[in-house]
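Why do we care about 3D structure at all? Because function follows from shape, and shape follows, mostly, from sequence. That is the central idea of this module. The next example makes it concrete: a single protein chain, its amino acid sequence, and then its structure expressed as tokens.
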Amino acid sequence: MYPPDPASTSFATIGGNIAENAGGIRAVKYGVTKHYVMGLEVVLTTGEIVKTGSKCVKDVAGYNLTELFVGSEGLSVSSQKPSSKSCPNRKPAAP
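And the structure:
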């Protein structure tokens, strides 16, 4: 399950969602894309490859570059290898 669920799910890509920090009709309840991206491997405009984030939820040493790059709309980086949290599928509520 991808909780942010952008409105254009039939055309949207994960890379586009990361670049735009997409959210959808469930963003109020579950949050936007930046809450689900754990790390990125990006290419800076200088050509350097940088890995950000970690597999830990609490990674608070210094600036959070992952959340800085998510939503940058491709102005500062080109995302190559995102890693994200996985969420279990939710069962529909009983009537």
